[in-house]
Amino acid sequence: xxxxxxxxxxxxxxxxxxxxxxxxxxxxxxxxxxxxxxxxxxxxxxxxxxxxxxxxxxxxxxxxxxxxxxxxxxxxxxxxxxxxxxxxxxxxxxxxxxxxxxxxxxxxxxxxxxxxxxxxxxxxxxxxxxxxxxxxxxxxxxxxxxxxxxxxxxxxxxxxxxxxxxxxxxxxxxxxxxxxxxxxxxxxxxxxxxxxxxxxxxxxxxxxxxxxxxxxxxxxxxxxxxxxxxxxxxxxxxxxxxxxxxxxxxxxxxxxxxxxxxxxxxxxxxxxxxxxxxxxxxxxxxxxxxxxxxxxxxxxxxxxxxxxxxxxxxxxxxxxxxxxxxxxx
Length: 329
Ligand code: AMP
Ligand code: MG
Description:
Elements: H1 10-22, E1 24-32, E2 35-43, H2 46-67, H3 75-81, E3 88-89, H4 92-107, H5 117-120, H6 135-142, E4 150-153, E5 158-161, H7 174-188, E6 193-198, E7 201-205, E8 213-218, E9 226-232, E10 235-241, E11 246-249, E12 252-255, E13 269-276, H8 279-292, H9 294-303, E14 308-313, E15 318-320, H10 322-327
Helix pairs in contact: 2-7, 4-8, 7-8, 8-9
C-alpha cells in the first residue's frame, strides 16, 4: 500500500467526515419536579436543538405546575382541597394521567394507588428524625386510601375524591408522564435523537452517536455505582427504589413507597427497574412492582406485553424478566 494513502473507499471516508462535522449535540441539566432533570438532543442544526431543549424544559415545568401536590395552588391541589365536597374540572393532561393511574391500580390489584397520600404523609422521611406512626394512626389513615375513592367523569372532565380525608399524589407517575410529553415536544420540533432523564426515569428516542442510548441502573446499596447498563432506543426505563427517600429507625428502613393495603412502607424490594414503550407506564409499573414484591411483581410484568423488569429483592437477589434474559449476552 502507498505511504500516506488512507485505507478504505475515499468517497465513504468523505461522507463519514461530513457526517461527523455536521452532528451536533446539546445537553441541559437542572432541576424539576423535586428531582434532577437532564435533557439531551442530537441532530444537524444547533438552533433546532436549542429550541427543542427549551420546549422540553417548558413542558416539564408546565406539567409540574399542573401535578404538584405541595405548592399553594394548581389543579391537583384543588382536587385534594375539594375532597368530600365537590368535583373539580381539570386540564386534559391531568385527566389523562388520573385515568391512566386508575388503570394501573386495577392492573396491579391496588398496589399502585395515587390515593396512597392519605397514609403517605404519616411517614415523614423528609424530617431529620421522624417518628414511626402508631398502628392506630395508620389504620385511621387507611380509611381514606383506595383508588375507588377517586371518581372521574369523562364527559365533564372532572375529578372527585369522595371522602374529606382523601388525598392524591402523583409522585410515582407524574415525572414519567412529563418525560413522555417533553420528548414528544422535541420530536414535534424535528429532533429524533433525544433523551429525557428525571432522576432515574428515562425515555430515549433514536440513537446516540449511531448506537442505542445506554442507561445505567443505580446499585441500590452502593451510591454512585451502577449494577447494570441497558442499551435502549425508543424505549422508556424507570427505576423505583427504597434508597432515595427513607429513614432508619431501630435498624429498620422505612422507604417512601407505601403499600396502600397496609399503610406501611413496602419492603419486598431494594429496587425495581421497568422498561416499557411509555415512561408514564414504566414509572407507574416500577412503583407497583416494588409494592407487590419480587414474586407477584414479576408475575405482573410477565403478563404484560412490551414490558420487562429487573428486580433486586430485599435480600439482594436479582431477577430479570424473560425478555431481558433473552437480550443478555
Ligand atoms: P417512584 O419513585 O416512581 O416509585 O415514586 C415514588 C413516589 O410515589 C413516592 O415518593 C410517593 O410520592 C408516591 N407513592 C408512594 N407509594 C405509592 C403507591 N403505592 N402508589 C402510587 N404512588 C405512591
Ligand atoms: Mg414510579
